[in-house]
């Protein structure tokens, strides 16, 4: 797999290239270290593309390591899903899948080392008291009354914590750094907590578990990671990351570099809030196509190439660039599918059309390109019969002046077929339109009618050969750009009631063979993906990936025109 590395700024790539050219760096080793407490989302995709992409570009390695220090919130299902997501995006990790728990014995030995050096102690303060003693951003903390225990006493208490002698919350192991440090992370941070929890990798061996801060840097060092790349919220943790590495006999010293996280409008990426949406049944599991999870995007019809392209488009900077327009993401998938998705016709809201001058047993089959610009996609066969379906939106009984679709007495061309004229509107007793009676101009197959111009072209499906389908029209899950901006409000108040609309549709016969996750452009409608959970033999289910209109491309074109005009004026 080749990753485009030219279209957007990436300061980390630039720094690493300079290090290599200056001889300050050898083989590059990066890592993607998710916590297995939820499914990955689009923000993680940015980190995956960055870490694996750097290793790929510079001939290095990227490790997949699960930072599994909190067994109460971790599950094997999350581990399996994360591995699948990374592989689906097209990346291969170097060596075996790694776990921070692989290093628990070494981490415990290093904790004992800090105790012996007088740089860690067992504290009996409660969690509430620890927060109180820590101080604030404007006031220094106070030392714990247990801070000066002897190394021997601390080692004994630590071992008794390890074997489960104490209750959860009764004691913790803390580093002894500086309770007056301006950076609160250095005010004697917690290294180990007591947790009587079964661990998915180590079973019941441990009754204490290391903190993320204590685990992360040392795991990097054990693995020989050269560049520990993380988002900006860890910038204030870097002094602590470096303090551990400086005060322990680690084999190498990784370098931590922070970059701005992805903030996408109309989207939430908080794993806690995503889990709430799943647990409350507001969405259909972690792979609901409305969620920004990688598995949800996959089910919606996104391709690995489109997600990688989007991550490249937004670039990698240290400055918080604010909200990224979700139209950029839509542009990336639309551009991919425009080139690679075969075409088909599908009618989402069927309206029957009876072609009154066509014999009842009439059938004509057209061979239509699978893709207008891709001969390798072959042709598909589209049958034409006396009765067809068109979309309800393509007919108006009293149309405005510039309505170039079907109306009483008005003509329109059926795509790849004849020109038809609406002669009669058939209604039921309630006055609702049930069908249209139309006539065909048989002299218009492949050519324009004599003496008149027909502007409209609409899609259609044979009533006799059409394939029944369920089509799910997905839209943004939230109605506002930043659903969790107001910390005092409930983000659930901003849910979009139209985020999922289900249609009973009918598609052309070629769609009957659509396999799970196969993608199509439904002509004049949008891009759709066969749902991965629909079993063979069941009714087809298609999820809308994205519409045909590209607002981001329009914005880019307008910006280019403005720049061009500005240059001319200059």
Please describe what this structure looks like.
This protein has 570 residues and is of the alpha/beta class. Helix content is 27%, strand content 22%. It is built from 13 helices and 25 strands. The chain has helices at 11-21, 42-57, 76-88, 104-116, 127-134, 151-162, 212-223, 238-246, 271-279, 294-300, 304-314, 326-340, 551-569; strands at residues 29-32, 61-66, 98-99, 120-123, 172-175, 190-194, 208-210, 227-231, 255-259, 343-344, 346-347, 350-355, 363-369, 379-385, 387-391, 411-414, 419-427, 433-441, 457-458, 461-462, 467-474, 500-507, 519-522, 526-530, 540-547. The strands form six sheets. The protein has a seven-stranded mixed sheet. The protein has a seven-stranded mixed sheet with strand order 19-16-17-18-12-15-20, with no helix packed on it. Strands 4-5-6-7 form a four-stranded antiparallel sheet. Helix 2 (42-57) packs across helix 11 (304-314). The longest helix is centred in the last third of the chain and has 19 residues, at 551-569. It is elongated, with a radius of gyration of 31 Å. 38% of the residues are buried. Mean pLDDT is 94; it is low at 1-6. It is an enzyme of class 6 (ligase). InterPro entries: aa-tRNA-synth_I_CS, Gln-tRNA-synth, Gln/Glu-tRNA_Ligase, Gln_tRNA_ligase_bac, Glu/Gln-tRNA-synth, Glu/Gln-tRNA-synth_Ib_cat-dom, Glu/Gln-tRNA-synth_Ib_codon-bd, Glu_tRNA_lig_a-bdl. L-glutamine binds at residues 67, 212. Residues 341-441 form the Glutamyl/glutaminyl-tRNA synthetase class Ib anti-codon binding domain. It catalyses: tRNA(Gln) + L-glutamine + ATP = L-glutaminyl-tRNA(Gln) + AMP + diphosphate.
């Amino acid at each position: 797999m080749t990753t485009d590395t030219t279209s957007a700024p990436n300061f980390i790539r630039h720094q690493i290239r300079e290090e290599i050219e200056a001889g300050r760096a050898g083989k590059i080793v990066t890592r993607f270290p998710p916590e297995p407490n939820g499914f990955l989302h689009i923000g993680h995709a940015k980190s995956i593309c960055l870490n694996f992409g750097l290793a790929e570009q510079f001939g290095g390695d990227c490790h997949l390591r699960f930072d599994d220090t909190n067994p109460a919130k971790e599950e094997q299902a999350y581990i399996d899903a994360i591995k699948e997501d990374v592989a689906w995006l097209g990346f291969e990790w170097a060596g075996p899948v790694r776990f921070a728990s692989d290093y628990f014995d070494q981490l415990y030995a290093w904790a004992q080392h800090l105790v012996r050096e007088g740089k860690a102690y067992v504290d009996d303060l409660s969690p509430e008291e620890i927060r109180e003693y820590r101080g604030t951003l404007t006031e220094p903390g106070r030392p714990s009354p247990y801070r000066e225990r002897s190394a021997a006493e601390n080692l004994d208490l630590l071992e008794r914590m390890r074997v489960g002698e104490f209750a959860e919350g009764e004691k913790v192991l803390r580093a002894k750094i500086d309770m007056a440090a301006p950076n609160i992370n250095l005010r004697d941070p917690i290294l180990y907590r007591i947790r009587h929890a079964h661990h998915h990798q180590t079973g019941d061996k441990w009754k204490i578990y290391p903190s993320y801060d204590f685990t992360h840097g040392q795991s990097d060092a054990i693995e020989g990671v050269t560049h520990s790349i993380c988002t900006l919220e860890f910038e204030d943790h870097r002094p602590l990351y470096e303090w551990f590495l400086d005060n322990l006999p680690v084999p190498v010293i990784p370098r931590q570099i922070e970059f701005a996280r992805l903030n996408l409008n109309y989207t939430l990426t908080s794993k806690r809030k995503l889990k709430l949406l799943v647990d409350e049944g507001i969405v259909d599991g972690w792979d609901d196509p409305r969620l920004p999870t990688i598995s949800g995007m996959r089910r919606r019809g996104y391709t690995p190439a489109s997600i990688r392209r989007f991550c490249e488009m937004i670039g990698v900077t240290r400055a918080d660039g604010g909200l990224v327009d979700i139209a950029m993401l839509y542009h990336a998938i639309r551009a991919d599918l425009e080139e690679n998705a075969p075409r088909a016709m599908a009618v989402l809201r069927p309206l029957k059309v009876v072609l009154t001058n066509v014999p009842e047993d009439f059938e004509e089959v057209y061979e239509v390109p699978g893709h207008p610009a891709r001969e390798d996609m072959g042709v598909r066969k589209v049958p034409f019969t006396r009765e067809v379906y068109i979309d309800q939106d393509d007919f108006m009984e009293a149309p405005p002046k510039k309505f170039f679709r079907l109306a009483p007495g008005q003509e329109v061309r059926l795509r790849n077929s004849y020109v038809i004229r609406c002669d009669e509107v058939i209604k039921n007793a309630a006055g609702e339109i049930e069908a249209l009676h139309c006539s065909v101009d048989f002299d218009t197959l492949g050519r324009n009618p004599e003496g008149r111009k027909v502007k409209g072209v609409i899609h259609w499906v044979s009533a006799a050969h059409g394939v029944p389908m369920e089509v799910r029209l997905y839209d943004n899950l939230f109605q506002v750009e930043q659903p969790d901006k107001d910390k005092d409000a409930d983000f659930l108040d901003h849910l979009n009631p139209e985020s999922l609309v289900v249609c009973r549709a009918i598609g052309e016969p070629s769609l009957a063979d659509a396999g799970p996750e196969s993608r199509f452009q439904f002509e004049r409608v949008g891009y759709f993906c066969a749902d991965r959970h629909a079993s063979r033999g069941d009714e087809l289910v298609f999820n809308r990936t994205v519409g045909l209109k590209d607002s981001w491309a329009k914005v880019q074109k307008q910006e280019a025109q403005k720049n061009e005009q500005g240059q001319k004026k200059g």
